[in-house]
Design brief:
four-stranded parallel β-sheet; alpha/beta; 26 strands; globular; GMP Synthetase, Chain A, domain 3
Length: 513
Amino acid sequence: MLAPACSYEALVAGFRWDIPARLNMAEQACDGWARREPDRVAIIDHASGAGVTYAELALLSRRVQAALVARCVGPGDRVGVLLSQSPQCAAAHLACWRMGAISVPLFMLFREDALRARLTDCGARVVVTDDEGAGMLAPFDLDVLCERDLPADGAVGPAVETGPDTPAVLIYTSGTTGKAKGALHGHRVLTGHLPGVEMSHDFLGQPSDVLWTPADWAWIGGLFDVLMPGLALGVPVVAARMRRFDLDDCARIVLEHSVRNVFFPPTALRMMKAADMRLQGLRSVASGGEPLGAEMLIWGRDAFGVTINEFYGQTECNMVASSCSALFDARPGCLGRAVPGFDVAVIDAAGQVTDGEGDIAVRRGCASMMLEYWQNPQATADKFRGAWLVTGDRGVVEDGFIRFVGREDDVITSAGYRIGPAEIEDCLLTHPGVATVGVVGKPDALRTEIVKAYVVPKSGVTIAAEELQSWVKERLASYSYPREITFVEALPMTVTGKVIRKELKAKAAAETT
């Protein structure tokens, strides 16, 4: 845990990474607690209302592990985890890590094409899921493991010896070109998240802290900004699946389980603000994904009685900057200050730190930085500029605060999801009536951006927008379908035949004015 400090400067000065040569996230997040305090509550299961102790979570994860061993899964093998917030989801990841396998979180809202792309790319041996997920996986030739298939005793051998850089989890992220890329992280990734999580919750781990997020555990924001850090710090984590964010359900979860610490994505906060919703009893509220602005921060203080702490990171290197109202006042429009242990700067095209606007970057050597993109050395090399991992966002540094300027790439940020346009374009191009297509983000007051598609139909073909929307919904994910479609005769192209998304983005932005 972060050492208590009276100022941000003292916090940074007193911090050092302490990463042992032997490190396993199952030990960090569960097994150590199960030995020391077996009856301590690890997860509060909203579905049943029961508290799951560390001893019970350890047993459940060992039952999953025994079933995986019986299926000949071993160190380095990839195991899909197609589960939403639940004790079973946590147990599946812990089981993989304890046995040296690589867990691959998968989103329950994915459809066949999105699942196929990820499962094929990673070469998953087995997918741990529930009955709903088993139905989704029916078209695949995969070994599917449901809870009913687990042995009763969970008798397994000793944990596999792993180190900080032993591959542990493969999280897919979307980019602007090509297929979704898998960011491969080692067992140090949990340690790397802890300082930023503690900081964004005004030193998480205080007596009676209880942590929850509506964000799904299939994403790095739910899995490593909430679930695993909470377990590692001994803070009970509420498991409450939300198919869609609902204000009444949100209030009920917070009240029923005496939630004190919440990570709310910006879209959830905007919905709450629009409904003038109030929540009592919270000690900390964190948010990340896109800047909130002064008006939202002012409203948050009134609605929650606390200052919303904004944090910043991405799947490849997360929790690198944060606000911390316990130490300093938030600065609207800024992403916070560098988390202890992270060197975050703005660099120029030559990879040199600059005082002006440039690329927000993180120096190599921090614990939450990915090992590589899975089986993609060129993409890995392209992500770095000398000693720096380049985030793809533009910014400036003001008195130690990192001010966000805009995105260098074309990733669409919608309702807290980062959506790659290439995957949607590829999906639309499989429709028999589509000749070519360009997908961009269109500014939206509620979702930050919505997915907008400009479609050129094949000659003589008439297509309804609703048909193309359903086409994407059925094949990718329900959140990534184009909410708006405009049919055009031609798209702006480069001489090499690439869509000039910059012009389409300008066109979409002009439509909002």
